[in-house]
Write a structure and sequence with these properties.
By secondary structure, the protein is mainly alpha-helical. It contains 14 helices and 2 strands, in the order H-H-H-H-H-H-H-H-E-H-H-E-H-H-H-H. It has a two-stranded antiparallel sheet. Helix 13 crosses helix 14. The protein is globular. One of its GO terms (biological process) is peptidoglycan catabolic process.
């Protein structure tokens, strides 16, 4: 009888179920990414719908206050220094200044660095090189709204999946009181003296604010240890601990700069 337009009960049930699943599937689709600010507000509403149950009302209220960050997009598209040679990169970043200041700070904070090395196996040099390279030892931590930066990159199509996970981490940090709607930092959503992305704060933060230099340095050492750092092993290219430095930043010239500056700080030359 099906050929004459009649439908058996089990087929009707199947049709209804398929319709429901299709509707649910439509709701489960990811919020639509974009390459301009035009769709950002619509994306926030879609994301908030998806995030219910995974993010709190408080954190989603903070997300609602965010705005599309053109400064973040500009920085994301303009990372030209990573294409420089190592010598050019070090000159641009002030390598000699980082080494000189790093040696001073190593002496002034000898007890702290001894404690860190005993606990995590990481010597002062790489930590000071990262600190100097990232923020000039805390002088320039950024002035871009952190949630807006992370939300903008989660919406932006270039690396949406990666920064969507960062955004969920940021919302968790809002619930924990670590971040607020007013928190400001670097262009990609990094915060603190050594510029941790939200997911790294959750995974490797040792407690307390990363705007405290001691906490930031301990957390950075914890990050390196979490990426395979072995106490007493070398950290130059080709040596065991260089892989942990590679985990810090994907740019080859940056990795080599950290290793070289860290060695100069550790060896006092």
């Amino acid at each position: 009888m099906i050929g004459r337009g009649f439908t058996t009960p089990w087929i009707a049930t199947g049709i209804v179920a398929a319709s429901v699943l299709a509707a649910l599937g439509g709701q489960a689709e990811a919020a639509q990414c974009g390459n301009t600010g035009a769709g950002f507000e619509a994306w926030k509403r879609e994301f908030a719908q998806e995030a219910r149950g995974r993010a709190s009302a408080q954190s989603l209220a903070a997300l609602a206050e965010t705005s599309y960050s053109t400064a973040t997009i500009s920085a994301d598209r303009g990372q030209k220094s990573f294409k420089l040679s190592l010598d050019q990169f070090l000159a641009k970043r002030g390598g000699n200044t980082i080494v000189a200041r790093g040696r001073q700070l190593k002496q002034q904070n000898a007890a702290l660095f001894a404690q860190i090395e005993q606990r995590y196996g990481v010597p002062p040099g790489p930590l000071l090189a990262i600190w100097g390279m990232e923020t000039g030892f805390g002088a320039v931590k950024g002035n871009i709204n952190t949630l807006s930066a992370v939300a903008t990159l989660a919406y932006d199509c270039r690396r949406s999946e990666y920064f969507t996970e960062q955004l969920y981490a940021a919302l968790t940090l809002v619930d924990r009181g670590v971040l607020t709607a007013a928190t400001r930092g670097a262009a990609h959503g990094e915060v603190g003296h050594t510029q941790f992305l939200p997911k790294n704060v959750l995974t490797y933060g040792t407690g307390g604010s990363l705007d405290n230099s001691s906490t930031a340095l301990m957390s950075t050492a914890n990050f390196l240890k979490g990426h395979g750092w072995r106490a007493g092993a070398g950290y130059q290219p080709g040596e065991p601990n260089f892989a942990a430095i590679q985990g810090w930043n994907a740019a080859g010239v940056y990795q080599k700069a950290i290793a070289l500056l860290g060695q100069r700080i550790d060896e006092g030359r």
